[in-house]
Each structure stands twice: as C-alpha cells, then as structure tokens.
Amino acid sequence: MYQPPPYSQPGYPPQGYPQPGYSSPPPYPPQSGYPPQGYPQPGYPPQPGYSNYGPPDPNRYHRMQARIWAQQELAQLGQNFASLDRDRSGRLDPHELATFFQQAGISPQFVPMVMRIFDRNRSGSLSFDEFCAYAREMQYVQSNPRHFYFLLFNAIDTNRTGSLEVNEVLEFTYLIGCPMDYQQVWGFMSSVDRDRNMRLDFNELCNWLRI
C-alpha cells in the first residue's frame, strides 16, 4: 500500500504543535473578579408569581379595576353625549345642554356657568372632551359644592391674578343669577374687601356667599 513520504520541509510541523491534551483545550485562566461575587443571586430564577423586576404588586388588581371602570364610564359618557347631540355636530350647544339639565333635574340657569367654566376655547359649545371634564368635576362638586365656585372663580380670573376686579365681579354676579350694576358691585366690594385693594380673592368671595 502506498504511503506518502513524510513532510520534510524545515520548520514543519511547528514546535509545540499539537500540544498535549489538544483534544480538550486547557481551562481558561481565571480572571480577577470574574465571575462577579453574588451572581447568580440566591432566589434566581424568580419564584412563581414574581416578575423579573421584583415581587408582585399588591395594588395591581385595583389599578386594573380602575382602568376597567374608567373605560366603562367613558363608554357611558359617549352614549350620553351622542344622545344629547341631536344635530350630530359632535358638540353640545347651550340648548342641548339645557335639555340635558332638565332631564337630570338641574335648573337650566346653570348652563351659562357651565359654558363659562368648561368651554375652554370659547366656541359656544362643548366638545366631548369638555363634556367629560364637566362630568368628572361634577362628581367632586356633589361632595364639595364650594369647588364649583372655585371653578367659576378661576374661569373668570382670566389674567390669573388670584383675585377678581370690579368687571370680573360683575360677570360673576350675573352668572350666579344675582346681577348687579357697577355701583352695587363697588359698594359691595368696599364692604367685604378687607385688604382695601378693590379686588376680591376667593376667600373673600366665599365669605360673601357664606360657603
């Protein structure tokens, strides 16, 4: 049987090759600080019911329920809005809002106040988002009627000074159904304006309304 002659070039095979134990490579020399101490940590992999980021959140169920209730409430508000929007304009005008108030047993005299507070872009009607804002605030007003006056106060205080001037008080008295003329408002402010700056802050207004 033919056998090839040995490879006789000088320097071949290289010295030290193959190394003893080549079939199983030598162990990688350990480096200082590797692997890091404490890794893998005790308790890994995570226990059942635990996420990769820590123990289970005990309030997760309540937050999920809150989201579900919020979605249900939003769907109900959408149905109410669609039933009130008779002209299918996508907005509620004062007449449609007055109809809604009559159905809910609320005096229509509150329509101008609601429009002043929640018609943010002064379009003369309420969008669905503005209607939702009204519904959310009214839930709080039921337990705290003073909050409604606070909303009206902020809506009239357009220059954000934290107080109402004479002209703004005139508008306020008109919206709450107690219109006054300029002299009446001036005399009224002189009697209740404790700091004598002819402006009314919210507390002074509440003292007048006794709320």
UniProtKB/TrEMBL annotation:
Chain segments carrying region Disordered: 1-57
Compositionally biased region (Pro residues): 1-48
Keywords, comma-separated and alphabetical: Calcium, Metal-binding, Repeat
GO MF terms, alphabetically ordered: calcium ion binding
InterPro entries named in the record: EF-hand-dom_pair, EF_Hand_1_Ca_BS, EF_hand_dom
Record-annotated EF-hand domain positions: 72-107, 114-141
Domain of life: Eukaryota
Protein name: EF-hand family protein
